[in-house]
Amino acid sequence: MRIGIFAFTGITMFHLSVPQMVFDEVSRLGLADWETFLFAEESGTIRTAEGYEISGLHGLADARDVDVLVVPSWFTDGRPAGGDVRETLRGAHEAGAVVVGLCLGAIPVADAGLLAGRDAVTHWDAFDLLAARHPELELDESVLYIDHGDVLTSAGTASGLDACLHLVRSRLGSAAANRVARALVIAPHREGGQAQYIERPLPDDSGDDPISRITQWAGRHLGEPLTIGQLAARAHLSTRTFVRAFRAATGTTPAAWVRSRRLDEARRLLETTDRPIDLIAADCGFNSAVTLRQNFTAAFQIPPSQYRRRFRS
């Protein structure tokens, strides 16, 4: 299998090396005859973000005759892909190649029209940019990669390893993917998505309007029952008026906002304290540890106990 990997001036060495490490390991282990090569918009030399010069790169024309075309990242400013790059991606796809956009590499893949009407994933920090440019996409923060068979996208940075291992697994089977994972000392399959890594800024509650006052108060009383009726009464508004004003101010419903704040507080307590999960559940207003686990896992794709082990300060 011939695999072309797109390189550009400013790409990081990590992003560029991920598909090479995984796919070249297939050949090193004698599992299959896979060949990788680097190409750029123009043949010659690029300079990486770390300042290294990489020479001997192929041009775009050489990327047409590939089995897999990988865009391992993209410019950090999220600039639209140029016409030549878009044409190369479309041409490879039309010729039967699998097109892979790792991390920000999903941006040029989307610009080439290969994700229209499909689910996709990219680095969480680029969700807003990609959604604004391509509103037809359905972006999913709950997964590490999405494979449509002919097009594959992955979440941020290290998720490229998961996506490339998945490609090995889908072509050569689980045993081969496990051998590659063991050789590289990485997990053959990771659970969850990137939602657990997203920094979720709190809405502005510094004002003195009824909604700001109620969000400030609710944030200090997360362990208490916080029904819509109780919040509306405390804001001295009818339930209907309160819900409408709350959505206008925060962009979400009172129930969703309360649940999000409770989950954020649970994350903080899991990271910074040794409190048992059942006490954290009570502190955050969940009826039981089971309810906390269900909501936490649904939101972050990882159980509270595993989250604590991963992110404990």
From TrEMBL:
One of its GO terms (molecular function) is DNA-binding transcription factor activity. Gene3D superfamilies: 3.40.50.880, Homeodomain-like. Keywords: Transcription, Transcription regulation. The keyword Transcription applies. Residues 212-310 form the HTH araC/xylS-type domain. InterPro entries: Class_I_gatase-like (IPR029062), DJ-1/PfpI (IPR002818), Homeodomain-like_sf (IPR009057), HTH_AraC (IPR018060), INH-QAR (IPR052158). PANTHER family: ARAC-FAMILY TRANSCRIPTIONAL REGULATOR, HTH-TYPE TRANSCRIPTIONAL REGULATOR RV1931C. This is AraC family transcriptional regulator with amidase-like domain. It comes from Zhihengliuella halotolerans.
